[in-house]
Write a structure and sequence with these properties.
Elements (H helix, E strand, L loop, with lengths): L3 E5 L4 H12 L3 E6 L5 H9 L4 E5 L5 H10 L7 E4 L17 H27 L5 E5 L14 H21 L5 E6 L16 H13 L8 E4 L8
Parallel strand pairs: 1-2, 1-4, 2-3, 4-5, 5-6, 6-7
Helix pairs in contact: 1-6, 3-4, 4-5
The structure holds NADP nicotinamide-adenine-dinucleotide phosphate.
NADP nicotinamide-adenine-dinucleotide phosphate binds next to α1.
Length: 231
């Protein structure tokens, strides 16, 4: 039976690769993006007019989330995937020099937005069969790595891990599984061309791992192959 996934930041990078793989296997995708009608999503919509549902969504905007929520009212979602993310500036992310405006902007996208989106679309997830909310975090948020760089990005991913565990415990009694993932180091605009794996490899691993997960995996932090990551 086909599933319905909703993916934020579905227009490029890892989000687009997951969208492509899901459409290929016959699932439906609610492709949420700031511009869901251009570029690669426009081509996919032409190929899959029934299975691809483009939705305009800026994950940092309450008005945009409210409009998307209204557009999707009554629509069951099996898997809600918080994928949209920002790295922040390549400099001014050190312990001794931080761009505070950039830090706030990254927190809006990487920390507050996944919770905003999860809260807004929880009724849709509860109406679905899958009952899963997954968030793309990063191994860079692991405190165990004890790092000395990328303060803005790393702290945002540590924070979203904590926020999602609190959220996961809040919806545990509703049988909604909440999971955090490291997608690998992926060849995207964010990961760069020298990264380890292609977006398709990451997408296939994430889909396989999410498919095989349920309530037993709620509040887990794993990579795209399903291997646990130390918090
Ligand atoms: N690539 C890696 O190696 C890697 C490693 C670990 C974790 N991750 C995480 O994986 C996720 C996807 O990363 P990626 O590599 O695919 O990045 P990417 O190629 O830079 O794509 C980022 C996506 O996020 C969207 N986005 C940013 N701000 C948004 C907003 N306010 N509203 C809606 N969408 C917004 C972008 O949309 P626009 O096109 O509109 O800007 C784009 O679709 C992120 O959470 C990232 O932190 C990536």
């Amino acid at each position: 039976m086909p599933q319905t996934w909703m993916i934020t930041g579905a227009n490029r990078g890892i989000g687009l690769a997951i969208t492509i793989e899901l459409l290929r296997r016959g699932d439906r995708v609610i492709a949420a993006a700031r511009n869901p009608w251009g570029g690669a999503l426009a081509e996919l919509a032409a190929e899959h007019p029934a299975a691809l549902i483009p939705v305009e969504l800026d994950v940092t905007s309450d008005a945009s989330i409210a409009a998307a929520k209204e557009a999707l009212a009554g629509q069951a979602i099996d898997v809600l995937l918080n994928n949209a993310g920002l790295y922040g500036p390549r400099d001014r992310q050190s312990g001794l020099d931080v761009d505070f405006d950039a830090w706030r902007e990254v927190f809006e996208v990487n920390v507050y937005a996944p919770i905003r989106v999860a809260q807004a679309f929880l009724p849709n997830v509860e109406a679905g069969q899958g009952r899963k909310i997954a968030t793309i975090s990063s191994r860079m948020g692991s405190l165990a790595a004890n790092p000395g760089n990328a303060l803005i990005y790393r702290s945002s991913k540590s924070a979203v891990n904590m926020a999602m565990v609190v959220f996961g415990n809040s919806v545990r009694a509703r049988d909604v599984s909440v999971m955090l993932f490291h997608p690998g180091w992926v060849q995207t605009d964010m990961g760069g061309s020298g990264a380890d794996i292609t977006p398709a490899e990451s997408a296939n691993g994430l889909i396989r791992t999410i498919d095989a997960s349920g309530m037993a995996e709620t509040n887990s932090f794993r990579d795209y192959t399903g291997e646990a990551i130390t918090w």
